[in-house]
């Protein structure tokens, strides 16, 4: 088994340890690998739940996410998404789903959460892999360390506290335009803005 | 104003899961057909994963993993472990197979509308389908607030260009346009009006993005 005591610093184009483990869960229902994923991602997901207002349901969310990981792991393809990206999107969807179910009955939801928010790599039309996908987490991790704090703060509020750009502006008491320009600067450096041809 | 593709800021709000359901639907319909934007969202999803990894971690209760194991063990063996990937798109679930046979309400001239806000309970935005008859013209108009539109069928053109099926457009009150349906099909669009609005008879008509 792979050593778990450090963050997987994957080399480009190769599977990182978490992705390997997730694949073992998918292929062989490997419970040891599943446990390792739980130890690593469980505490992150619990924080995620707490940060965006689900404090009293944080553990419930962690549990839902892991049950979902187990069920869907056979669909996971490491060539299409890194395990952490895949798990992040499952956590995001379970959070959305939990909030939707708290707010209304299933009869009121003709469209399911996953019809609206897709898990990467589960679109069967998707051609197998693009290299940038495998590289992107590593590249993002490296680029983030060079971003000014004010840009990271804004991105963290959007992703972790699920605040809209407008809500971030209100909270930090800065104009919406400033929030947007910080996000754009950051996304530029992270090369997320690949070719925004729509100006 | 965003034309043809969603801008990176909207895609980021989508990836973070912060958009309302109607807005998420517009983005998702576009993503289903646009690999370029899908790949941008993949990168943004990775940004989300890295942000989550860099936050504090909170210890989970002891015994939780065992609870999870007993939960997965209690699932009936004959039930497929894998959720069936939906073959029916969100659009079909909402509107059925044939957009043309919906109960359209004819408005001025070549324009018909159908308000589908009630399909999104609990959401603040107004959601409207519009149909511009093939070759038809909508009167010149501007937009109030912000309006996100995706082309579901056919195409329309205005001074700024041609918008084909699955193109994405965001218009604001600064955009005045005079759309014309091009091609031999009726042009059908789905629009989300972000500002909460009062739905009164005449006002509804004024909100119609083709005629406003």
Overview of the molecule:
The complex is a heterodimer of chains A (199) and B (212). Chain A has helices at 17-28, 31-51, 58-72, 83-103, 113-116, 131-144, 149-160, 165-172, 176-189. Chain A is mostly helical and 199 residues long. Chain A folds into two domains: 14-122, Orthogonal Bundle (Rna Polymerase Sigma Factor, Chain: A), CATH 1.10.1740.10; 130-199, Orthogonal Bundle (Arc Repressor Mutant, subunit A). In chain A, helix 1 (17-28) packs across helix 2 (31-51). Residues 1-13 and 194-199 of chain A have low confidence and may be disordered. The longest helix of chain B has 19 residues, at 35-53. In chain B, helix 1 packs across helix 3 (35-53) and helix 2 (21-33) packs across helix 3. Chain B has helices at residues 8-16, 21-33, 35-53, 64-73, 90-95, 201-207, and strands at 2-4, 105-106, 111-115, 126-132, 147-153, 155-158, 161-163, 168-171, 180-182, 187-193. Chain B is 30% helix and 21% strand. Chain B is elongated, with a radius of gyration of 21 Å. The chains are: A mainly alpha (199), B alpha+beta (212). The interface between A and B is large, with 83 and 66 residues.
Number of domains of chain A: 2
Please tell me what the overall shape of chain A is. Answer: globular
- CATH homologous superfamily heading of the largest domain in chain A: RNA polymerase sigma factor, region 2, helix turn helix motif
Most strands sheet of chain B: 7 strands, antiparallel
- Strand percentage of chain B, roughly? 15-25%
